[in-house]
UniProtKB/TrEMBL annotation:
Pfam families: AAA_2. It comes from Clostridium manihotivorum. This is AAA+ ATPase domain-containing protein. The keyword Lipid biosynthesis does not apply. The keyword Methyltransferase does not apply.
Length: 386
């Protein structure tokens, strides 16, 4: 049974899409005109029609009924591919792409952008491999400017990413994975957040926290459990990948994962893809996965097997910030917060107030979250909020 490609479109572009398709001597039709015909009957199109774009969106307006209704489209999938001389494309409003993936995953090979197929302008590059050298250097500058301390780590990360960009392009390294350990609150998760915000600032971040998982159900929580099982679910990792165009995945508190989860990532990092409990295939080529852990570097081998450690492209430990780094961070964070207050609340602070906000004794504070709390408390005092 041959699988087909479905092309999703942005409803906001529909008038432009219709015009372009018409200019290409092609037509858009609703799926229902095929459903009215028998399996052996062809739908006739005007002579010279180059392509027919079959829109299945009307099947999916009512999400509660969609899973039952979508079965109506299956019988003509092979008909459309075999019985017509013109090109046939299945298209859908991108708002319903997730439903399509969940219900027709056995018949669909992948979902692509209709705008790209038609040669229309489309979204910017969203991965670390395909950006050009100037944008890559800009991304590294963004990371270095907003991540304080740990200069050796930042240097090594750049070197490893340069190597990854090279070997991914020749098919040797599908995924880049970095394992970062160290004390809580020193910037481990911020690395993934900075990369995500630079490449895809408008998308939801793909973040999995194993501190929220129970050992017994961790793998099912991650990739789902089969249909029909009591308490079945679609899987947090699968769903978040489907809902975001980000190519950065943050796996937080990885040391708390169960053995089946460790084995899952052992295979994922080797193959670059996985299949979830519903049989949906996920190709993670050009994805960057950041694993974080609060354990010390010398204790990593007590929790994670040598086989899994060998799959990580880069392993490191972040060190607590120096006093100078903490003061630089306070200045950076203070300016960031004050700018938002001035823009959104139209509140101006004078130079004396700025100095008072910076008055934080960080000698006994290592956690950046605690420093953030001190900054916020000082700002609140200065502007009179309680």
């Amino acid at each position: 049974m041959e699988k087909v490609i479905v092309y999703e479109y942005d409803k906001r572009n529909f008038k432009e899409i219709e015009k372009l398709i018409e200019e290409q001597d092609s037509v858009i039709v609703d799926w229902a005109i095929f459903n009215k015909k028998g399996n052996e009957d062809k739908v006739e199109f005007s002579a010279g029609t180059e392509a027919v774009y079959i829109d299945i969106s009307s099947l999916l307006f009512n999400e509660d009924r969609a899973e039952n209704l979508i079965g109506l489209i299956v019988p003509f999938l092979n008909i459309t591919l075999e019985n017509y001389e013109c090109d046939i494309y299945i298209i859908v409003d991108k708002r319903y792409s997730e439903i399509i993936k969940n219900t027709l995953y056995l018949r669909i090979s992948e979902i692509q952008k209709l705008e790209i197929l038609l040669g229309m302008p489309h979204e910017s590059i969203n991965n670390v491999v395909d950006i050009d050298e100037a944008m890559f250097n800009s991304m590294i500058h963004h990371l270095n400017s907003n991540l304080f301390g740990n200069d050796n780590f930042k240097k090594r990360l750049k070197e490893e990413l340069i190597k990854y960009r090279l070997f991914n392009k020749i098919g040797e390294q599908p995924i880049f994975s970095v394992f970062i350990c160290g004390e809580s609150g020193i910037g481990k998760t911020e690395i993934a957040r900075l990369l995500h915000n630079y490449l895809t600032p408008t998308e939801k971040m793909i973040k999995i926290n194993f501190g929220n998982y129970s050992d017994e159900n961790a793998l099912s929580s991650l990739i789902g459990s089969p249909r029909g099982y009591v308490g079945s679910n679609k899987g947090e990792l699968s769903e978040k990948i489907l809902r975001s165009k980000s190519k950065i995945i943050l796996i937080d508190e990885f040391e708390k994962a169960s053995k089946p989860v460790f084995n899952f990532f052992l295979e994922l990092l080797e193959d670059g893809n996985f299949t979830d409990s519903l049989g949906r295939e996920f190709d993670l080529n050009k994805y960057l996965i950041v694993f974080t852990s609060n354990i010390k570097k010398q204790d990593v081998s007590k929790t994670i097997s040598p086989e899994l450690m060998s799959r990580f492209n880069f392993m490191c430990q972040l060190n607590p910030l120096s006093q100078e780094d903490k003061q630089n961070y306070i200045s950076y964070k203070k300016n960031q917060m004050i700018k938002k207050i001035e823009e959104k609340l139209n509140i101006k602070l004078n130079e004396t107030q700025m100095i008072d906000i910076m008055n934080i004794d960080t000698r006994t504070i290592q956690n950046l979250r605690d420093i953030n709390t001190k900054i916020m408390n000082n700002i609140s005092k200065q502007i009179g909020f309680r």
